[in-house]
């Protein structure tokens, strides 16, 4: 049992490191790159569209393969979303995410990867992210 838990942790760590490396190589840890994508009336930078397209392609293949399995490799069952309704919390959360992304050019994944840069700006953003996440848990 302990070996299974260790393997799950190692696979999770490797996945996170691979994601962070991919974000760094693609330049997505640079807020200017992201803001360049959002600036459709100025000097538009399509790089993020290619990163998103690549991520969607990989995820589509992985999801299709996952649906063919009876259970996950390191788990008892799959944890797939069961809700499909759109409520106020979802809309407000999406709006806050979009505003934050548009204002500073960070979203959570690349910001966490950007912590490796040692940037004070990234540290402030991630601190706000953690604080907002904790505060959001207090809202019923």
Concise description?
The protein is mainly alpha-helical. The protein contains six helices and no strands.
Would you mind describing this structure in some detail?
This protein has 140 residues and is mainly α. The chain has one domain (2-136). It is 68% helix and 0% strand. The longest helix is centred in the N-terminal third of the chain and has 25 residues, at 2-26. The model has no long low-confidence stretch (mean pLDDT 89).
Cα-based radius of gyration, to the nearest Å: 18 Å
Task: Give the termini separation.
Answer: 36 Å
Q: Give the biggest sheet.
A: none
Q: Provide the low-confidence segments as ranges.
A: none
What shape does the CA trace take? globular
Mean pLDDT: 89
SSE topology string: HHHHHH
Please render the helix and strand layout as text.
Blueprint: H1 2-26, H2 31-38, H3 47-67, H4 88-104, H5 108-114, H6 120-136
Helix pairs in contact: 1-5, 2-4, 5-6
Label this structure with key terms.
68% helix; mainly alpha; 0% strand; 140 residues
């Amino acid at each position: 049992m302990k070996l299974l838990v260790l393997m799950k942790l190692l696979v999770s760590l490797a996945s996170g490191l691979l994601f962070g490396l991919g974000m760094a190589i693609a330049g997505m840890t640079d807020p200017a790159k992201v803001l360049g994508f959002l600036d459709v009336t100025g000097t538009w930078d399509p790089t993020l569209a290619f990163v998103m397209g690549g991520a969607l392609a990989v995820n589509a293949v992985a999801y299709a393969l996952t649906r063919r399995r009876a259970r996950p490799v390191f788990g008892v069952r799959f944890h797939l979303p069961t809700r499909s309704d759109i409520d106020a919390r979802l809309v407000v959360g999406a709006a806050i995410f979009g505003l934050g992304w548009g204002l500073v050019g960070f979203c959570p994944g690349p910001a966490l990867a950007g912590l490796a840069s040692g940037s004070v700006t990234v540290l402030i953003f991630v601190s706000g992210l953690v604080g907002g996440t904790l505060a959001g848990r207090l809202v019923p």
